[in-house]
Design a protein that fits this description.
elongated, 209 residues, homodimer, mainly alpha
Chain lengths: 209, 209
């Protein structure tokens, strides 16, 4: 095991503090809107002075970009990367939907998801990077549907683009309605969505599982 | 035909001017955020003085509530009301999806849809009214799925709540991706979504249409 040096410890401490700031800022931005939230308010809610806050982030734009980038990091780590190696395109898509549902319902900040999908405030290079990462996901879904159609695992009349965005809408709408203390568990939601969505696109003779 | 009186003409003129203001305001709020948009900016973009704007709307909160209320009016008029009388619950839901898809893709302001679904700024009585109208739609969908399951038009393992929100997510996500000049027409999107969604919930022996 590599011994942890003081500078590594400092770096980790810095990163932890930074993520705490991102979470707080995400909460405020969701409540008050991006324009309606000042760096002063974010500093106060983090127990920092404004100067202290600027030690961690350069600007409000950078803060928003970082919240979105962090959301994409977690998404790629927990959803996209683990399924990319699954050879069967239909199993790949099913596992992808299941993981994406659970990401929307479990243990990470709902606010970050909201900001990731509802804020189009970033019109700079950082915004283009986030959009490119989102488009990579859409392209991955379309490509997987195309493969599944080519292998006759999905009906030929299914359009890969409509399928990709139906998949995304079904899954990403969850953060608007799912409540942890509701009637349905997140596993039930994941199972129910995978069941109806994939039965809808399978060749009819394959629908029975 | 009832002759049009001067006061009726004035009223219509007032209403037309008001709707033009709502559309302009919706555009600005989408671009800059609700908190980031001032009544002054809205007035300027409508070619009005601030006092002139206050002739049509009492406050910024009222303006936002009116944009949302207008969006719900159009939705109910074009989607919910025309399908409520369809006796067969599955045909009712299919027609409802088709109409809702076309509402998201056709001839009315995309901005109003965005505001209706992304802004939770209203925490007053007007906000509760909007939420109650949205909930009425969810209840209508759940009830129709429940009826369809009871009549064995939908598989018994389908959960009406998951089905209702999958339906909504599939349809409402459209405003985030659909472009009029894209590869797919809105009719293709409506047909594709109705086909895959309803094939996914039908009893397996009924899947073939």
């Amino acid at each position: 095991m590599t011994p942890t040096t003081t500078s590594q410890k400092d770096e980790r401490k810095f990163e932890d503090a930074r993520k705490a700031i991102l979470e707080r800022a995400a909460l405020l931005i969701c409540e008050q809107g991006y324009e309606g939230t000042s760096m002063q308010q974010i500093a106060v809610s983090c127990g920092l002075t404004k100067a202290g806050l600027y030690h961690y982030v350069e600007s409000k734009e950078e803060l928003l970009a970082d919240i979105m980038g962090w959301g994409m990091d977690i998404f790629e780590e927990q959803v996209l990367t683990p399924v990319q190696g699954i050879e069967d395109p239909l199993l790949r898509l099913e596992e992808c939907m299941r993981r994406n549902v659970l990401l929307c319902t479990r243990g990470w900040s709902r606010e970050i998801t909201v900001i990731l999908h509802e804020h189009q405030t970033l019109r700079n290079a950082a915004g283009r990077t986030i959009n490119a990462r989102k488009k990579k996901y859409v392209a991955f879904l379309e490509q997987s549907f195309r493969e599944a159609i080519a292998r006759k695992l999905v009906r030929p009349e299914v359009d890969p683009t409509i399928a990709a965005f139906s998949f995304l809408g079904t899954v990403l709408w969850i953060y608007k309605w799912f409540r942890k203390d509701g009637r349905l568990t997140d596993e039930q939601v994941a199972d129910g969505m995978v069941d109806t969505f994939f039965n809808g696109i399978r060749p009819l003779e394959r629908s029975a599982r």
